[in-house]
Amino acid sequence: MRIAENILRIKEEIPPHVKLTAVSKTHPVEIIEEAFRAGQVAFGENKAQEMIRKQTALPNDIAWHFIGHLQTNKVKQVVKFVHFIESVDSFKLLREINKRAENVNRQISCLLQFHIASEESKFGFDVDEASAMLEDIEYKEMQNIRIKGVMGMATFTENTKKIRKEFRDLYRIFTDLKNKYFACSSDFTEISMGMSGDYKIAIEEGSTMVRLGSAIFGMRNY
Ligand SMILES: *Cc1c(COP(=O)(O)O)cnc(C)c1O
After folding, report:
1. Distance, CA 184 to ligand 1 centroid (Å)?
2. Is the pTM of this model over 0.85?
3. Separation between Cα atoms, residue 66 and residue 51, nearest integer Å
4. Phi-psi bin for 197: left (phi > 0), alpha (psi -120 to 50), beta?
5. What are the φ/ψ torsions at residue 212 (nearest 5 degrees)?
6. Which distant-in-sequence residues (6+ apart) come within 8 Å of 120 by Cβ?
7. Dist. CA 116 → ligand 1 center (Å)
8. Which of 25, 140, 191, 199 has the fewest CB atoms within 10 Å around its CB?
């Protein structure tokens, strides 16, 4: 394993304003520990049970980022420790996060996930849904969530023009929402885009957070 080397190389390669989330899904806790010892603090998981199991077994100062579709019935357990929920994809989910976070007296950093890819299966808001939520009085009264920006996944393709266009679409969505709903706030600063196959393009198109799995840990065995 060259995990430590991979992390150091990637950190040198990405600009200092871009944060790295190491996507550790499917990998065992020993591997995460190795990355943590190499200085990596933020880890991304896309399944609630898996993240909870790993969190219990690993040091408390790991910053867990949830990056998958989160079912509302899993929110309660995750909210106790999660550092960032990057994949808020419905008003219903945000409502549940706020409610459960209030119960444990925490404020949870969230990103709104947008559907920018052409594949059917990916979750996320469209702009109209997100705008309706951000204008809703119920949202405005939420005290236990902080929306810090947006997240999206490009289509899985070799076509770099298409990928670039989708990242541009997400950047545009970010800018529009920021101007319209977060102009008086310094909270809304993050654009989470870029995975192992496309993070260089994502950074060129304005990413502030990249989520890298295979570039750090190698191939996943499902
Ligand atoms: C798995 C996953 C990643 C990382 O994918 P790699 O191609 O291994 O870098 C990033 N983001 C999300 C949402 C994922 O599910």
Report:
1. 32
2. yes
3. 8
4. alpha
5. -115, 125
6. none
7. 15
8. 140
Per the rule left: phi > 0, alpha: psi between -120 and 50, beta: everything else, 187 is alpha
pLDDT of residue 220: 84
Q: Residue length, the chain?
A: 222
For residue 91, what are its two tokens? 């008003």
CA 202 to CA 189: how far, in whole Å? 15
Distance separating alpha carbons of residues 22 and 35, to the nearest angstrom:
8
CA 138, 141, 144, 149 torsion: positive or negative? positive
The confidence score (pLDDT) of residue 122 equals: 59
Give residue 195 CA to ligand 1 midpoint distance, Å.
6
Provide the b/e sequence for 71-104 (b: ≥16 CB within 10 Å). eeebbbebbebbebbbbbbbbebbbbbbbbbeee
Identity of the residue numbered 1: M
**Calpha distance 151→174 (Å, rounded):** 9
Beta strand spans in the chain (E): 19-23, 42-45, 63-66, 84-88, 108-114, 145-152, 190-192, 209-212
- pLDDT recorded at residue 204: 98
Find out whether the beta carbon of 100 lies less than 6 Å from any atom of ligand 1.
no
Q: Helix or strand or coil: residue 17?
A: coil
Amino acid at site 89: D
